[in-house]
Amino acid sequence: MTQQVRTTSPETGDRSVAELVSDLSEQMSRLVRDEMRLATAELQRKGKRAGLGAGLAGAAGVTAFLGGATLVACVVLALALVMPAWLAALIVGVALLVVAGLMAAVARVQLKRATPPLPREAMDGVQRDVQVMKENVRS
């Protein structure tokens, strides 16, 4: 039994294939535009949340810095009870600079290990693989 393809239906009426393709194209364009608007709105909402989160994180960092500075002042004032205030401040300042120097030295070593930002192990592995392939081709 041969099956015939209907070119008309209750939804399409007597519309041609070209008209149906045109409608499909228009509907796809509208769908893509609507999806893009939806994605833009979602990204804007997420961007606002990320901005708020970043602002709060920055404020927390500043507050933590101020808390640390207050604790340093507390140490200076406590030492000032047993020695002159200038000496207490000098000792605390030198101790902080020593700690900062040690942290900078460790940071420098870590940064040297991270540069250049190339996947050395992967590159070495690829070079080994190429060498093995060359040897197998020669055999």
Automatic annotation (TrEMBL):
It comes from Amycolatopsis arida. The chain crosses the membrane at residues 52-79, 85-107. It comes from the Bacteria. Keywords: Membrane, Transmembrane, Transmembrane helix. This is Putative Holin-X, holin superfamily III. InterPro entries: Phage_holin_3_6.
